[in-house]
Amino acid sequence: MQKIVYLSLIAIVLLAACRQKGGRSEKDGMNRDTSHYTKQEYIAQVLDSNYVGTFLDRNPQFAPYGEAIRDFYRKRGYHYAWINEEGITEQAGGFMNMMRQDEESGIKDSTLDKSRVMALYDSLALMGDSLNRTDSIVPITELALTGQFFVYGNLVWGGITSDNAKNLEWFIPRKKIDISSLLDSVIANPKERISKEEPVNRQYKLLRDELQKLAVIVKKNPTWDSLKVADKKKTFKPGDSSVLFPVIKQRLSLLGDLKEKDTSSLFTPMLDSAVKIYQARMGHKADGIIRQQTLDALNRPLEHYMHQLMLNMERLRWVPVEVNTDYILVNIPEFKMHAYENGKLAWDCNVVVGTPGASTVIFSREMKFVVFSPYWNVPPGILGKEVLPGIKRSGNGYLNRLNMEIVGSSGKVLPLSSINVSKYSGSNFPYIVRQKPGGANSLGKVKFLFPNEYNIYLHDTPSKGLFNETKRSFSHGCIRVSEPKRLAQWLLRKDSSWTEAKIDAAMNAGKEKYVTLKDKVPVYIGYFTAWVNYKGELNFRDDVYGHDAKLAKLLFGK
User: Which structural domains are found in the chain, ordered by start?
Assistant: First the structure.
């Protein structure tokens, strides 16, 4: 695991012999910046600017934020931020509580050693207003708190580095956070909880709440009894009886899916309802039938799900704090597309994504075009593996059966007889093979383009049956949409000329037509295996591409 910053305040202890030398070296001619402090005055006590530099030199764990820390104190004229005339401030206490709550929630990042700064804080807190402000522990604690805030903020609110995220195949641009401004705001508003200032997405906070709930359950129920059946193919349905049911009911009750206590061995209507809720939350077929898949999910230790929450909280540290515009989110492990209006969910539908061997890329771009009755230009990979071998076997018979044609660089359709197909493979074939518009076209009757280097787009499909599967990773990488007409209507809804009848006609015209969107719509192709839905239900999904496993190795070393 790549260590981000190992916070060790051993060097701070070594600084204990260093005494603050009185006034500020830079105080002459300095005008403090009061732009962030309209609601309060600065704390009277000041730091020696040279001492700030000495502290940072001797504490290399703060080196990545050294200039920002110097700038923070420079702007406030080197006045203290965390320690005032009455002792340690409320804001410092709030910061300590936030870090302690992380530990109570099970967030124990090995790169974020908080013990020593907490010990320094506790020492000053016990002293109260009897604190001797000339004691060397005072400036040490002041600067340690500020340094810790930068380390904590960048790690807990910003996450791992952008390079690490790209190594995990995450190509959505990272959010930018200004820890200095956040610290200014925290210091200036002592009555506000720091959690209100956190620059994180709302979904992050929801997952953190769920993590805390699971931590409480684990504390009271450290182990699960295994739910075993001799026959792995055995299923249970309403009306059945089993010695497993009391345990299943207890477990579903703890998880919040079963609303009333029931210790009977009968598969009751209440249990049927709870099982369906649980199955839906897990991405299983929500039919109420308890099968091995259901038992496997219930048998997993809650620590497994806690780790899954932490992995997705890490991803949520990378995304924008809030998006108040129209946008589209495709969540790959969920196999769903979500359309948002002004930041609120408007509707969603099932999608088919790439197979694990041809995985859909995680990235974002802007939707720019709707293409009705599209051609399908066969990608090189499919051309080499499927289409060219078919042409070599059956010639025009293959092309006619799939409604395909060969096009030269000028756009002119070429007769197969003019091409010596036998000497080409997919990689060196100099022509385009395309499928003509029509009901059998692999892209269906409409496609949606957000131009990108991965050649990924949303599209209709003639193969509708796959949308009924619970796991829908069947494509070559592009994303098939179960409700393409609805998506076209939604994207064109602000253009009154595009009526439903006109959209229907364009989809069935048999002639390709490009429509440029007046308002471009951001599209995010994301990867989240845990989230809280609009009903407040915690959902989990399988790690379809193995990205959770890679991130876990980076974060947890396993």
Answer: 10-199 (no CATH), 224-300 (1.10.101.10), 323-375+443-527 (2.40.440.10), 376-436 (no CATH)
Quick one: CA torsion of 57, 61, 64, 69, rounded to 10 degrees?
-60
**Does residue 16 contact residue 43 with C-beta atoms inside 8 Å?**
no
Residue 486, CB half-sphere, CA atoms under 13 Å: how many? 11
Smallest CA-to-CA distance from 407 within 477, 508, 507, 512 is with 512
Q: What is the pTM of this model?
A: 0.86
Fill in the DSSP letter of residue 423: G
CA 313 to chain centre: 7
Q: Each residue of 70-97: pLDDT tens digit?
A: 999 999 999 999 998 888 899 999 999 8
- Summarised one tens digit per residue, pLDDT across range 513-549 is 999 999 999 999 999 999 999 999 999 999 999 999 9
214: enclosing H helix or E strand: helix 202-220
d(CA 170, CA 360) in angstroms, rounded, equals 11
Residue 319: partners with Cβ closer than 8 Å, 6 or more residues away: 172, 175, 201, 526
Active site residues: 459, 478
Contact in structure between 215 and 306 (CB atoms under 8 Å): yes
Q: 266 CB contacts (<8 Å, ≥6 apart)? A: 239, 240, 241, 245
CA distance linking residue 24 with residue 72, whole number of Å: 15
Q: Are 328 and 363 in contact (CB under 8 A)?
A: no
Specify which residues 353 forms β-bridges with: 473
What is the Cα 117 distance to its own chain's centre? 30
